Amino acid sequence: MNRLARRDFLKTSSALAAASLLPGCAMEPAAPSRPVGRVIVIGGGFGGATAAKYLRMWSEGTIEVFLIERNSEFISCPTSNLVLGGTRTLADITRSYAKLREYGVQVLRDEATAINVEKKRVSLKRIEDLPYDRLIVSPAVDFMHEAIEGYDAEAQKTILHAWKAGQETVALRQQLEAMPDGGVCVIGVPRSPFRCPPGPYERACQIASYFKKAKPRSKVIVLDANEDIVSKPALFKAAWNDLYKGTIEYRGNNEVKAVDARTKTLKTDFDTIKGDVLNVLPPMRAGDIARTAGLLTPNTRWCGVDWLSMESTAHKGIHVLGDATLSAPAMPKSGHMANNHGKLAAAAIIELMNGRAPNPQPVIANTCYSFVSDKEVIHVASVHRYDPAQKTLTVVPGASGVSASRSELEGAYGWAWAQNIWADMLG
Amino acid sequence: MIRNVLGATLASGAVFALSALAQGADPSLGRNLAAACANCHGTNGMSVQGMPNLAGQQRAYLVQQMQDFRTGKRPATIMHQLAKGYTDEQIEALAAYFAAQKAR
Prior knowledge:
The structure holds 2 protein chains of 2 kinds.
Chain A: H1 3-27, E1 37-42, H2 46-58, E2 63-69, E3 74-75, H3 81-85, E4 94-95, E5 106-109, E6 112-116, E7 121-124, E8 130-131, E9 134-137, E10 141-143, H4 167-178, E11 184-189, H5 199-214, E12 219-224, H6 233-243, E13 248-251, E14 258-260, E15 265-267, E16 272-274, E17 277-280, E18 284-286, H7 288-292, E19 305-306, E20 311-312, E21 318-320, H8 335-353, E22 363-371, E23 377-387, E24 392-402, H9 408-426
Parallel strand pairs in A: 1-2, 1-9, 2-5, 9-21, 11-12, 11-17, 12-13
Antiparallel strand pairs in A: 3-4, 6-7, 7-8, 10-18, 14-15, 15-16, 19-20, 22-23, 23-24
Chain B: H1 2-22, H2 29-34, H3 38-41, H4 59-71, H5 79-82, H6 88-99
């Protein structure tokens, strides 16, 4: 696109923004004044989509927001283990981006390929690069397959991680369905921190739940690089003991070091384990775009942020959300947390773009519900507030905990949580 | 009808703004705190399914519920843990914010 064409494009997109404000006005009585600037959001997950919506809503349309998302629809990682268990389909956990447009968010189906920090521009795959005043990077995680011997592109065709919900989730379900009764599914868990700490253990429950119903002689083996279950250990152990005794076998301190897709075997320091379905989660790091943009904190795989604004400690004017962040103490890499990061960033960006200081006392919260059967759920929850002495968010003393026991009541809350958080982020 | 709803919203908004001023607080304090409730209870406290609506509830009622969750007087699966994360002033600000939202 030449300079003139780009100007036309921007003019058009501003007009579009103004037009798309109209439905928003029904909710926000204040008339929009001249835009105070443009924010580009890279990544339409729990963090990015939430930030985009709340920036529009709270700025009363005065901030222009572009959301860059490569997928046509949002597919939720939380609750995606239910697709493996067979009680939900991919359609049940898929939502549209269309309603964000009613808030005036300009949703672009595209992929950010580079960030020019000096010129404040984002390069895209499908259209000309776009300028921004502030940038939000919410890139989730990418996977370090190279850390596991033999986990190359060919092996990745049959050994799936399914740690980003979508077609891979469906493919893993199909592998489980195709497996004969008496077969073994092996789940490999990487060393913490990784996205969704309770996720692998919930997955073991869901697969075991399916096995119990459909192929009762089958087994799930969990090979965990960590010493013990990372999240809600007592509650998961109780569920495994009460519901899946003889079906789930757990081995702590068993890191998957090598895979062989041809012989369907995994190697740890101690054993060679053969399975019928191999589900190996590679170690994780901040998503590619964060790495190429130089947002990683030295000697880590994650992006350091100022917890008052989510602004990168590497580059001013760029805010990082969600799993990609170098987590605050006892803060899990969860969708719920990413949603709260999005709101914290939106509030701070509005203040900063209007020449004011961000809220000095942010308080955010986390809730993770895990389905240990088709109906019963357990939770972990915590409230995090800014501690000026430590310059980070810390758990408020006494304000955290887990379920007293698994229950169907929390099963209903767990599914309602999903409906509400999807609506909260997507409109 | 529309004017009435708008009028009511503006009036309750004014009450909230006054109470925020009286506390000498950041005018966005309630809004920012309430955003952390929206994950489960819906944007601005308007739940879409399966969770109690907070929008438009009586302010005093909301304060009392949060206090009862904190003390354990009202049994809960999760709220007794989350309620302990907030000071009395923050609970006041939350309650004022949700009370000022129009219920669907």
